[in-house]
Amino acid sequence: MAAGGVSPGGPLGAYVPGTSLLHRCPPGPKLLGLLVALTLAIRWPEYVAVPAVALFALARVPPRMALAQLRPLWLFLAVAFGFQVLAAGLGTAIEVVGGILLAVALASLVTLTTRVSAMLDALVVAARPLRRLGIDPDRVALLFALAIRSIPLITEIVRNVREAQCARGAGNNPIALAIPTMIRTLRAADALGEALIARGIDD
Amino acid sequence: MIEVERVTQRFGDRVILRDVTVTLAEPRIGVIGSNGSGKSTFARLLNGLVKPSEGRVTVDGFDTRREGGKVRRKVGFIFTDPDNQIVMPTVAEDVAFSLRRLKLSPDEARDRVAEALERFGLAGHADHPAHLLSGGQKQLLALASVLAAQPETIVCDEPTTLLDLRNTRRVGTLLSQLPQRVVLVTHDLDLLDEYDRVLVFDEGSLIIDDKPAPAVAAYRTLMASP
Ligand SMILES: Nc1ncnc2c1ncn2[C@@H]1O[C@H](COP(=O)(O)OP(=O)(O)O)[C@@H](O)[C@H]1O
Ligand SMILES: [Mg+2]
To answer: B10-45 burial, b for 16+ CB within 10 Å, e for fewer?
Structure first.
């Protein structure tokens, strides 16, 4: 585990504990703020860059953590940048790629300073009108939580299957990978369903 | 008290459990038997995850077939693979998930979560993603989460099968110190030394029901014969 109570681990489920203004801001307003900030970031990245960095500092997110959130994006951004330079010139390329970079950074700033449970509670409130359609807002929130929880589970399954295939010399054949992955994922889903029942989901 | 009365369990036309009758009242009960002997099916019957095809299972008088919710509030369940029973993304949230049905105030819930994590040595990991815990810590989290709901009995289906020796001991010791009744399905026979009673299953039948020493000895003899 990384130092200082900080946990890495991808874009979801990573949380940097703290007491900053951003940590204390309720998730509803924070998500609305994000919406506004995203619009601005895409439209005028040059004006949003400095405030965005300031917000990271305000929330006391270690730079290493901030960069870790963006890491999965490098390849995509490099390709997008290349295309933009060829198609529209350097200025536009910087603007477009900078905008995307800022948008992702701002979104991850929200996830880094908001507990998943707080986000889910906000979701329950937001989903309340759905009750009229016969949809239980708590169920909606649970669905999202399970989706988030499933990401590392499936990642792990894919890794195991790939290792098993390599050990047998099957190489990286996508079908040889897809079928066992699917079977194991369905089995895990079954087991998770049983666990939910055992833990009182229906009571 | 859990009463299993004349339960026969079929999946399709295969008989998995054959006419099992047993009353579970002791604080520590072990369940052993070879692979496929029906231990997991027996364990799942106790909290209503499996409904008996014949006979009935009651927990303090509540029938698992009709009052599954009440039964599961009394009987917590620990699975072999903790990855499949951790349902929330972070450690503290997973414990909190167990408390939902208790409708506690936020303060009360927070205290209970903190207390449960403290007890299982996970206090420093409260806000960490659950998937980054070690295998042993994941099983401890599974225990913390199930026990936070304060069941009267916990049924554990091979909770140490995926763990190393150190974590097996640790989980075994924790289980032996719980105030709850424990029904432990296991292949780690030494965990059962101090238990009150051990049930041995073979090919779907409950063949031995005795103190640990004689039950384990009979099981070993059974496994050694061809
Ligand atoms: N849901 C099910 N459907 C069909 N067969 C099952 C099901 N659950 C268990 N079985 C079968 O029942 C037998 C006993 O299984 P189980 O109770 O898991 O034994 P154990 O836990 O002692 O290994 C096995 O042969 C298994 O294949
Ligand atoms: Mg089993």
So the answer is: eeeeebbbbebeeebeeebbbbbbeeebbbbbbbbb
